[in-house]
TrEMBL record:
Record's protein name: Malto-oligosyltrehalose trehalohydrolase
Principal EC category: hydrolase
Biased composition (Basic and acidic residues): 60-72
Subcellular location: Cytoplasm
Organism expressing this protein natively: Mycobacterium asiaticum
Length: 580
């Protein structure tokens, strides 16, 4: 008979409702309530707190078939459905970020499975899915999750996720899941009725989580238990941890260090690598510094400075947090050191920001601990119109950005559709069922961009179903014209990255970067391979020669220089390596 348990130190009485029948529960001194009930393996259940007559879902709900406001359902993965998967490390891999709801027209795990062979052919190593835990409404980005242990039903629920991960593993693809532990969504969050889940500290997205205030130990276990569940029960290969800088923890052992320790232990238990990738705004190397050296011991972190440096140098945009970037000097500095702001002044923040990364072998941090990318869901979706670089740049500019990322020493990440220059936007969309919340979301979005000079009428309504529909990929595009040409380039760059030993060196102190600010060219030297890029519109002569390996447009390789057309790149194998 299943035992039902719930941590609820706040109410005086907790009762269990199973399929409409109410059962008494017994409380222990630690605030946990228990009841053992003979019931069906797929029973619907919930909890009644004190004298309330509304049944609340389980904070650790394994399934929410009717949405986040309704009863939970018992669920366990089917026996014998899993593949024999040894796992793989993420260091130096190519990761593909996607949103299940817009990756395909149907927007489900099963329809995404139909595109996995395409991803294998592209050459990626891991699929990173944006949050799939339960949130209110039918569609959204997923960062408003309120029942972290369950899987969003419109995507296919927990069984759909199991099928998706198994299908990825059967094809040699690892799976990373985006997990949000810094805040809870505004609709369906019943956790405060059970216990002290929320903190007095807040963040831009909502009330913070109690990981360091009074009675926070069980909340910390709630978070860590959820993180481990994705990797243990669903067999995910790791997590992308959203906005960890918003996790306010003043304890001696930071929750990220605690989570990394538990993840390493689980990795040894299951016999395969497990990864934790942080999104952080702090440029703090401690996240990816080993625990025995005083760090938190996470596997990797997103590196927005690399994105900003590449995007601004290629596109010319300089607004907002791009203000300090845009020059080739900034690009070269960032590519050599991982962080641009490293205990240096940030004009956007109006203060000193970041900390230098030790890049020296063997004591430092290899470049593979940082993720480089030309765009992400944030860098596209948080623009006023959700427009992609491909909607504003030439195909040659897109090719240059791809060469800089995929030819770099960093672990690379693509955002779905960038590999063929998708023309569909990725806009901010939501489906809040509460009218007042829906209106607040609309008003907040318009007010945010009005401050930056955008006409409020131009801002897509996040609640309009067409905003969601517009953001779905158009799978007719990859086979046609310039889209097909760009896609073939991405395949070639990824194949070169996998097969070329000179591109495997992860140490930044051996990366050589030369550039000419006026002529707008930059060259990355990876041992004998030189990645020469012309960011300008006019042809330039770049002081690098060798055997041509891969190019966009038609370079003219001479005796002393290579002439590159505007908005193009060439990868050449030089006679001998250039050293720092």
């Amino acid at each position: 008979m299943p035992e039902f348990r719930v941590w609820a130190p706040k109410p005086e009485v907790v009762r269990l409702d199973v399929d409409g029948t109410v059962h008494e529960m017994t409380r222990t001194d630690d605030g946990w309530w228990h009841a053992t009930v003979d019931t069906a393996p797929d029973a619907r259940y919930g909890f009644l707190l004190d004298d309330a007559d509304t049944v609340l879902p389980d904070p650790r709900s394994p399934r929410q078939p009717d949405g986040v406001h309704e009863r939970s359902q018992l669920w366990a993965p089917a026996e014998g459905s899993r593949t024999d998967w040894p796992g793989k490390p993420i260091d130096g891999a190519v990761i593909y970020e996607l949103h299940i709801g817009t990756f395909t027209a149907a927007g489900t795990f099963d329809s995404a499975i139909e595109k996995l062979d395409y991803l294998v052919d592209l050459g990626v190593d891991f699929v990173e899915v944006m949050p799939v835990n339960s949130f209110a409404g039918t569609h959204g980005w997923g960062y408003d999750g309120v029942l972290w242990y369950s899987v969003h039903e419109p995507y296919g629920g927990p069984d759909g996720l199991v099928r998706f991960i198994d299908a990825c593993h059967a094809r040699g693809l690892g799976v990373l899941i985006d997990a949000v532990f810094n805040h809870l969504g505004p609709s369906g969050n019943y956790l405060p009725r059970f216990g002290p889940y929320l903190s007095s500290a807040s963040n831009p997205w909502g009330e913070g989580i109690n990981i360091a205030d009074v009675d926070s130990d069980e909340v910390r276990r709630y978070i860590i238990g959820c993180a481990l569940r994705w990797m243990r029960d669903f067999h995910a290969d790791g997590l992308r941890l959203d906005a960890v800088h918003a996790l306010v923890d003043v304890t001696a052992v930071h929750i990220l260090e605690e989570l990394a320790t538990e993840t390493d232990y689980l990795s040894r238990q299951v016999g395969r690598p497990l990864a934790l990738i942080a999104e952080s705004d702090l440029n703090d190397p401690r996240l990816i510094t080993a625990r025995h050296r005083g760090g938190y011991g996470l596997t990797a972190q997103w590196a927005d400075d690399i994105h900003h440096a590449i995007h601004t140098a290629v596109s010319g945009e300089r607004q907002g947090y791009y203000a300090d970037f845009g020059t080739l000097a900034a690009l070269a500095q960032t590519l050599r050191h991982g962080f641009f702001h490293a205990a240096t002044y940030s004009s956007f923040r109006r203060r000193r920001h970041g900390r230098p990364l030790d890049i020296t072998e063997p004591t430092g941090i290899p470049a593979t601990r940082l993720l480089a990318y030309t765009c992400t869901h944030d860098q596209v979706g948080n623009r006023a119109l959700g427009d992609r670089p491909s909607q504003n740049l030439t195909a040659g500019q897109l090719a240059v950005k791809a060469a800089l990322v995929l030819g770099s020493p960093y672990t690379a990440m693509l955002f779905m559709g960038e590999e063929w220059g998708a023309t569909t936007p990725f806009q901010f969309f939501s489906s809040h069922p509460e009218p007042e919340l829906a209106q607040a979301t609309r008003d907040g979005r318009k007010a945010e961009f009005a401050e930056h000079g955008w006409d409020a009428e131009d801002i897509p309504d996040p609640q309009d179903p067409q905003t969601f529909e517009r953001s779905k990929l158009n799978w007719d595009e990859p086979a046609s014209g310039e889209h097909a040409r760009l896609l073939e380039l991405y395949r070639s760059l990824i194949a070169l990255r996998h097969n070329e030993p000179d591109l495997a060196d992860p140490w930044l102190d051996r990366l050589v970067v030369d550039y000419d600010e006026d002529q707008r060219w930059i060259v990355l030297r990876r041992n004998r391979l030189a990645i020469a890029c012309n960011l300008g519109t006019e042809p330039v002569n770049v002081p690098v020669v060798g055997d041509l390996v891969l190019a966009w447009a038609e370079p003219d390789v001479g005796a002393e220089t290579t002439r590159l057309p505007g908005h193009s790149f060439a990868i050449l194998r030089e006679q001998s390596p250039v050293r720092n």
